[in-house]
Amino acid sequence: MNPVMVEYFRQKLLAWRDELLDEARATLTALQEGGNASEADIADRATSETNRSIELRTRDRARKLISKIDEALDRIEAGTYGLCEETHEPIGISRLEARPIATLSLEAQERHERMEKTHRDE
Question: Which key words tag this protein in UniProt (predicted)?
Fold first, then answer.
């Protein structure tokens, strides 16, 4: 992968990370402001709690995604970004475009998923 492409993915990862952090800040603000409101109706309260739980789960997934983005940025700095962790062959650009945090080539990922399915079914 040439330096221009590496920089393109670095910028893409940084923008994605910033977007997730902005959403997390907005969620935190909304939860702090909404935490003071108490609904009189039990159904409204249950709906609010369910929405809060869903939002917190979404933020937890985002937190894990931010960690994977940071790992991808570390691979860029180390010069290993875009290389499959199993085969050490280049990961296809189209795969990286679709999933910039990918660590396995498409073929390696498919093998990994087949192995998971095989062991899960046992």
Answer: Cytoplasm, Metal-binding, Zinc, Zinc-finger
- 1-79: which CATH number, 1.20.1560.10, 1.20.120.910, 3.40.1260.10, 3.40.50.300? 1.20.120.910
pTM of the model: 0.80
Kindly indicate the confidence band of residue 35, based on its pLDDT and cuts at 50, 70 and 90.
low
User: Phi and psi for 80 in degrees, rounded to 5?
Assistant: -110, 5
Residues 30/31/34/40 CA torsion (nearest 10 deg):
150
8 Å CB contact between 80 and 73: no
